[in-house]
Amino acid sequence: MGSLSTEALSVEEQQQQQQQVDMEDSSRAERAQWLLNSPDPPSLWQELVGSIRETLFHGNKKEKKKKQTSSRGGAFSFLKGLFPILNWGRNYKASKFKSDLMAGLTLASLSIPQSIGYANLAKLDPQYGLYTSFVPPLIYALMGSSRELAIGPVAVVSMLLSSLIQKVEDPVADPIAYRKLVFTVTFFAGIFQFVFGMFRLGFLVDFLSHAVIVGFMAGAAIVIGLQQLKGLLVVSSEFRPWLFIPYLPPCCKVYWEKKQKAVLVASNCSTYISNIVNFYSFKGPLLGQTVKIGLITAIVALTEAIAVGRSFASIKGYHLDGNKEMVAMGFMNLVGSLTSCYVATGSFS
Fold first, then answer.
1. SS3 letters across 260-296
2. Fewer CB near the terminus (10 Å): N or C of the chain?
3. Comparing C-alpha atoms, which of 296, 271, 68, 260 is closest to residue 185?
4. Number of domains in the chain
5. Residues with Cβ < 8 Å from 119, sequence gap 6 or more?
6. Segment 61-99, tens digit of pLDDT
7. By the 8 A CB rule, do 151 and 140 touch?
């Protein structure tokens, strides 16, 4: 009897082992069949189009599936992604209008003298500062996602524009050409900001920690104060607040020599890429410098606006969508460049 039971157990074990082997073989066959018949991976163009759709369309997947059944629902979903006012506007109460009106009047009374002063920093006539404080805020109110961000001309961007553009064109010798360059730089800055948002580069906002935001705000305050010392002290010659700056290059020479090869490789790669895409095929003697200034201004303007917006968002307890912020600021600067406005962004003050 004992031998019969052991033989039965051994037969059952062999059957179980055979079943496991058969299951493994079938799973391997299914996996091989899936690999052979798997769909092709999406192309680069399909990924870019998908990222743009995710940026513009509403984020609710269930609602998106229901609305994609009709062309009308898809168009409305697109508009809701592009204009956040369609989301929160339905819940807007008339009781809030009085407070919003008072806030708007207060902000307008403060922005008029500020805009005139910031236009002076940008080496522009006062009316251009007023234009910048009027047109971009109207567009941002429709497309922006921050509730407390005040849009208009700011000191940091105004000084940056004047310091970079006056190296190319003298605002005193030829003010018309200087204004044309300012509006062209604003146009390119809007393009860069819009493209950043379309390609979903808003995740870079997550790298702006609280320490970075506080440091940027403190640095901007110091730079503004130093720039105003020239007029306060009535200094007619070139103002050089830091006399030790000429001694910094010799001190950094040892470290720079180690990094020189990496800099050469990076510069050669950028030159090769620009030649591939025919970056300099556009005509115009100042186009390259204008695009470079536009890129720098776009990044600085986004950094300031997102720093202020994230500060308010963390205090009020809501999420700031970096992608929509980039799209909104890019579009408002594009329109602003066509209406005699220069680069606008969120203001510290």
1. HHHHHHHHHHHHHHHHHCCHHHCCCCCHHHHHHHHHH
2. N
3. 296
4. 2
5. 125, 126, 127, 128, 129, 130, 132, 153, 158
6. 444 444 444 555 666 676 776 777 777 777 888 888 888
7. yes
